[in-house]
Amino acid sequence: MSKLTHQAILSQIKNGLIASCQPVDDGPMDNPKIVAAMAQASVIGGASGLRIEGIDNLKATRPNVTVPIIGIVKRDLPDTPVRITPFLKDIEELAAAGADIIAVDGTDRPHPVDLQTAVNKIHELGCLAMADCSNLSEGLHCKALGFDIIGSTMSGYTSGPVPVEPDYQLVKDFKAAGCYVMAEGRYNTPELAKKAIEIGADSVTVGSALTRLEHIVNWFVDAVKSASK
Hints:
This protein is α/β, with parallel strands linked by helices. The protein has a single domain, classed as TIM Barrel (Alpha-Beta Barrel). Helices cover 41% and strands 15% of the residues. The protein is built from 10 helices and 8 strands. It has helices at 6-13, 32-44, 55-61, 88-97, 115-124, 136-145, 168-176, 190-198, 208-211, 213-227, and strands spanning 16-20, 49-53, 69-72, 101-105, 128-132, 149-151, 181-184, 203-206. It is globular. InterPro entries: Aldolase_TIM, NanE, RibuloseP-bd_barrel. Keywords: Carbohydrate metabolism, Isomerase. Belongs to the NanE family. It catalyses: an N-acyl-D-glucosamine 6-phosphate = an N-acyl-D-mannosamine 6-phosphate.
């Protein structure tokens, strides 16, 4: 497990790429050994940090890398749309498995555990706390609660059709408000990842474009098919 101080962790991922190694659920690559290999390959490629979903995936990955890991658990619950690290048990298990940073849903939707309790538990266990938010008011609220990193992760994913482009304005607004900003959500080309840093993000997370092979192949297939129409 990383022994870096909180400030050292933030410094290590500053201006860096976080590779989100989350394969398609129940797909052929949805296996802890494969996730760990994705993570190692990402680090070899220069990733400053990793975002890993699931306790088994985190346990498989942690012994093989030294970069900071953002840990999450995703759950589909019947009484809330909140999916990301909804329970205190998830936080406890992520910390025990070696997460340096623990991310939770930071939206204003109904939570099984209130956000203040969640951030307190994350800090109690010695980890940095990240809030995955969808708008400025949520980010400001989470910052006031004590979250160390504010992410644009949920922008475009809480209602209506998902936009094509990232939410650049939200990144700018978070930065103007004094947040440590994680740009995340639809930064699916090197140019977009570069732009995230240029507009003020402290770090940028990229997922599907790096580790969801089914999605990447489909992008190319659609492009090739469109050429024959």
